[in-house]
Amino acid sequence: MTGASQNRQAALQNTSAHAALYRLSELAAEFGAQRIASAARSVADRVSEGRFYVACIGQFKRGKSTLLNALIGHPVLPSGVVPVTSVPTVIRRGDRLAARVRFHNATWTNISVSDLEEYVSERKNPENAKGVDGVEIFAPSPLLESGMCLVDTPGLGSVFAGNTAATHAFIPHIDAAIVVIGADPPLSGAELQLVETVSQDVHDLLFVLNKADRANSAERSAAVEFSRHVLETRLNKTLPAIFEISALDRLERTGPERDWGQFVHSLEELVVRSGRSLIHKAAERGIQRASNQLLAVIKEERNALARPVEESERRLATLQKTLKESETAMRDLGVLLSAEQQRLSGVFVERMNTFLKKAKVSAHNELTQRLASLKRNHNGPTFRRNVNHLAQEIARAQLKPLLEDEAKFAEEEFRKTAKRFVLLANEFLHRFGEADMPGLNELPENLDSDHGLSIRSQFHFHLIERVAAPASPLLFVSDLIIGGVGLRVGIVRDARQFLDQLLEVNSSRVQSDVNERVRESRKKLDAEINAVLREASAIAGGALARARAAQAAGTPGVQAARNRLDSVELEVQSFMVCVMPLSPAPKNSSF
Question: What does the pLDDT look like over 402-429, one tens digit per residue?
């Protein structure tokens, strides 16, 4: 029996499971818990169709989107050197390339595949400002024929850590995962934490070291060895193979294949070996998750009916006070961090001035040495152009270590500053968690305190070509005459001044670039933390509003509500204990 037919059979066997999920979705909607309702309905839909999710996870710039493009054989997902994925994107089997998008509280809308970037990219949809709830791509890929769906997730530590939160929010829907690591650095702390979290419920993990074409054999071996050791220690189990691949090479059909064949074979084996059980486990997890969340809502509704009005008011006042304190504290800290940013800006100026003093001396010495080897039989204009281009080359080389040093210094300083921001936010998250309100358990227990610069450098060396190759007719004639009699001292003097100008202009651009990275990274961290605290406010406020409404119904209304809660609770509990067990696979099956 093929993987496709077996997975369709699994879908039929899970009929009662997906019926339970649809019923849980209906009940959640009755209580106004739309997020629970939507999640349960989504799982029910894919279980009924025999689909399971294999998510591609890892840090941003690992090449996850390119990897998925290579797997399906179509460059449909936007990819690039900056973080490009802002929302999880599901790739399903289809007869032709197609795509659709769903916004919050809306139905699916068909879109052109060429317009995907408008909805899933950081550049066109930063921090998911357009409110995209889901994106699906349909592709005619043989790899997807058996029900496997590939999922592109936002990279950890990407431009907005709110997008990191989107990846964490998708974790309960992951049935298997492709963990994409790199050689530099091999693994981040956030990646390790994510893999640990995913591995608690997901046992089928494939590991790939992407961009193998950018590292030599020794670097790849060291990265694989380090990653294997760290992962096996953290996961407390032996790790399978770590495949060394270059997704870009495979997509463009260039370069050596490396471990690509073995990697694809492992994915195909996953379908045959585990596809059926993954669908069943997805149904089980969906039922357990929706049931637990709905029982928490029911508990709060029942407590609200029994709780004196005065106590509810006190709870409301306490939560509102905590929210106001968090907003005030984060705002005050934001002012302090802005002042710290200004201090860093001054430090960058001092470091730039120190650099310039040393760099000018070194650059002039190098220019003198290299002028000796420059051919002098050229005419004056050609000699000026060659000398000035030599000055550009020297200035560029002098500035490279400055850019690297300043980026490293800014990264270290920003981490210290960001840590204060995150620690305070975590304090308020803990206080929200102690409120025992349904839904607050969906918030992260802690924000990651290891926040570095989240903005990519935009520095580009400014050549100042108008000086390097002047178009002035008078200067051209002057160079031609002076060069003809061998007097080129003036040209060399001008080149030294040009070299100083190159160093000054570009070192200032380095400093501005680093300043901008610090400023924008701080703003984005601020946005992430505020988004989490706003979500806490919305969850807590909704729960308390329902409590007030229940108490306002009076004694008959309260008794009727209690009876309804008892009935729903029994129904939900029955779903938790009556999930249909997975029947044995046929004897001729490979499961």
Answer: 888 887 887 777 777 777 777 776 777 6
405: in domain: yes
Q: Give the residue from 547, 577, 541 showing the smallest Cα distance to 561.
A: 547
- φ/ψ (deg, to 5) at 206: -110, 135
- How many domains does the chain fold into? 2
Out of 303, 332, 349, a domain closes at: 303
Query: DSSP assignment of 517-567, as one string?
Result: HHHHHHHHHHHHHHHHHHHHHHHHHHHHHHHHHHHTTHHHHHHHHHHHHHH
CATH number at residue 179: 3.40.50.300
Q: Are residues 215 and 353 in the same domain?
A: no
d(CA 231, CA 240): 11
Amino acid at 495: A
- Alpha carbons 338 and 519: distance in angstroms, whole number: 8
Name the pairing type of β-strands 205-209 and 89-93: unpaired
Q: What is the CATH number of the domain that holds 366?
A: 1.20.120
The sign of the CA dihedral 244, 248, 253, 254 is negative
Range of the domain at 531: 321-551
In the sheet that holds 108-111, the strands lie side by side as 108-111, 98-103, 132-139, 89-93, 148-152, 52-57, 176-181, 205-209, 242-244
- 340-373 pLDDT, tens per residue? 778 888 888 888 888 888 889 999 898 888 887 7
E strand or H helix at 478, and its extent? helix 473-484
pTM above 0.90, yes or no: no
Tokens of 469: 């190759």
